[in-house]
Amino acid sequence: MIVVALCGVSNVGAQIVSTDKISSDSIREAFNNGPYFGLYKDNYFIFGTAVGGQRPSKTNTNIKFQISISQRLTKTVMPFNSYLFLFYSQKCFWNVLENSMPMTDLNFNPGIGLAKPLFVKNRFIGKVLLLLEHESNGRDGTASRSWNKISFGGSILVDPQFMVHAKFWIPIVDGVENKDILDYCGIYQMGTSFTSLNKRFGASVILTKRKGWKLNYNTVIELNYRLFKRDNQYLFLQYYNGYGEGLLAYKEFHSQLRVGIVIKPTLFSDY
User: Residue 33, Cβ neighbours under 10 Å: how many?
Assistant: First the structure.
């Protein structure tokens, strides 16, 4: 049993139906009857430090948190049976062990997009996305970082436990101080996620390909365990290895292990 949810609007799931019986009509009905506002990406609050040869210190031990929401803009179906929505994500790095506990990097990611549900033999299998998104750190001068993307993405439910996803983008780099951002933050990403039969445990891997012909990927590995059967709050472990974890220090390599709590959309997360 799963809850119908698209483009991060997890609260659409007032209707619960079998994965074998989700049709185009039931998707539209769930959107029409459900709330406009909900989660987009994972919302988490995690704490950790550097690993993999780096010595932990006050400067590389921090809190990382992300807030991510979406808003469906219209009740009517758009062309190609798609849905229009706004989204906003904010990621923050907070050095709580340093004097005055500074928030060293805040990344803002607003955008607008279309989401289209996918069906095979009248069975819901996932969605595709067309997004126009902006990302910046709100700073000026030499600390300013900014770029825009026209993104094409998709998430496919291979079965109720296993999902694959990919996202490609056309970059529009307008930041004077980050003209080489594709060398570090990448040109596309792909990944997979697994959920146990009882929906208590999940694992995911996300790979972001940096510019160039070498096999150079930024890697994120995540594990989550649901605390209570009826809640969507999970114990959360995230391992980040690569560049571009935050915009301010996008050229710096980070190998970070953090743990904490995550609130996840009902069906699957966006990346």
Answer: 10
